[in-house]
Amino acid sequence: MFDRRLMKMCPESKKYIAGNVILQFLELCCNTAMILMIAFSVQNLYNKTWGLTDLILPAVMIAVTVILRFFTTKYAVRMSYLASRTVKRVMREKIYTKLLRLGTSYREHATTAELVQESVEGVEQLESYFGLYVPQFFYAFMVPVALFFLFGFGGSWKVAAVLLICVPLIPGAIVMVQKIAKKILSKYWGQYTKLGSTFLENLQGMTTLKTYQADEYKNVEMNKESERFRKVTMAVLTMQLNSITIMDFVAYGGAALGILLAVIAFLNKELALANVIFMILLSAEFFLPMRRLGSYFHVAMNGMAASDKIFKFLSESEPDEKTETVSDGNIELKNVCFSYDKEREILHGVNIVVPRGSFIGIVGESGSGKSTIASLITGRRTADSGKISIGGKDIGTVSEDSLMRQITYIGFGPVFFKGTVRENLLLADRTASDDKLWKVLSDCELADFLRSRKGLDTALAENASNLSGGQKQRLALARAILHDSPVYIFDEATSNIDIESEEAILSQISKLSEDKTVVMISHRLANVVNADTVYVMVSGNIAESGTHEELLKQNGVYARLWQTQSALENYGKEAV
Ligand SMILES: Nc1ncnc2c1ncn2[C@@H]1O[C@H](COP(=O)(O)OP(=O)(O)OP(=O)(O)O)[C@@H](O)[C@H]1O
Ligand SMILES: [Mg+2]
User: Fold this and answer.
1) 340 lines ligand 1 (CB under 6 A)
2) Topology at the third CATH level for domain 90-314
3) In this structure, which topology does domain 331-575 adopt according to CATH?
């Protein structure tokens, strides 16, 4: 009934929970005092020992207790709020820090939609757990014991004992449904996050779905998933309703039994009128806190099921703390093996040397492992065996910050943020002046286009969808140049774009390679003819390496590829 991990996670909230319990208890004291006053007033009026004027004092005292109750209720709610606010803050902070610690590899652990749901919706659910359920848990056990003694001393021990015996039936019912509830709720949460992921994915891929007229099919698929979600939601509601019915039966049945016993005792002249009125008015209080605990329990279970997912994410193993910083130097891959999944090794002992300041080409057929090498050098993936070093330091020990300062990766399909061109460029160099930005834009042949729009204030839509493919790629290059890192990796940065853009980019890359280390991954061999060394990959192995001329002389894979590509290009020219 109680999740210690959650309490341990946020000890700060303990004081607010205690505050809430104390205030609720004070509220009960006010209630009891008020009922006591009413009971005695009724008795004295009934026995005619009091006149109407004698009612002034009790009336004033009742008014005072009502005012006191107003404040205790108000502050109890405030304490609930503070407890849940603290927990939400701490949990969100923990998720965020975990994400940062997992670094760029976080996507291996959870999808974006899952994370958003856990950190927003899941954490929200914890609000009821800490704000309502936990304080009620303590309060609900304190009240029957306190009332037992009050009833015993103030009336009949027999009635008090019967009521006290009935109370544990409610937590009994809770424990009984807990196992079933846990199972159903975990299913509910699983289905909920799954539906969220599918929804997000389909929404993002809407254009593609429309293109292939597959939206109808996806619609049917999503309907099926929604139906599964509806069913599991109904199962949750049915379970909750059933258990609440049982709890109501115990709570109100128990109170009725107490009242009946008190009335019988009164008729047998074992109890005075004031005592029986007191017991009648207060017997429901025996059960109500437990009953309320029962309803909070269902909300809290939801939070606990969500927290299971959060704890699972928080306990994911993290990469070791990396503290080394790199200075400019050679990049070396020695006998590097890598696989995405156990069944299939992608790189089988790759050896590459990228000397400082050199221009290196990596070519090879599609799927041979070129981009995989780039992801290893940029620290997005970790090699299974072998060694990767930068400036003499093992890449596994270098901090992400330092690595990102050292290497800029430009792939195909760069990411831009909604905002202005200036804002997107300043990501790479926060202090760059407008002049500097214009200079780089002009080098990347974007200046004229942007001048015809709103200059640096030209608005970019989400992921720069209002630019052409070639413009986007040139803007990505401009941003990369601004980053001014010692090493640049271009991974098919000129694929599928217009010839002018390609030429502009290639000429900038060639300029960059004069004083930077450049690794150029390309399927077009013409792009790497000037490289100091070209590595030719075949199925995860380096099949050949050397300069363009040396490789042609070898008359191997590279030479064959070169002949095919040259023939194709010449054919194109002849045809024109
Ligand atoms: N995230 C991934 N999970 C599992 N396998 C992957 C993943 N990314 C790539 N692969 C597999 O690894 C192999 C190498 O992929 P990689 O992207 O390195 O090829 P590439 O040489 O860059 O190809 P291309 O020229 O088409 O870009 C491929 O067979 C691919 O199926
Ligand atoms: Mg690739």
Assistant:
1) yes
2) ABC transporter transmembrane region fold (1.20.1560)
3) Rossmann fold (3.40.50)
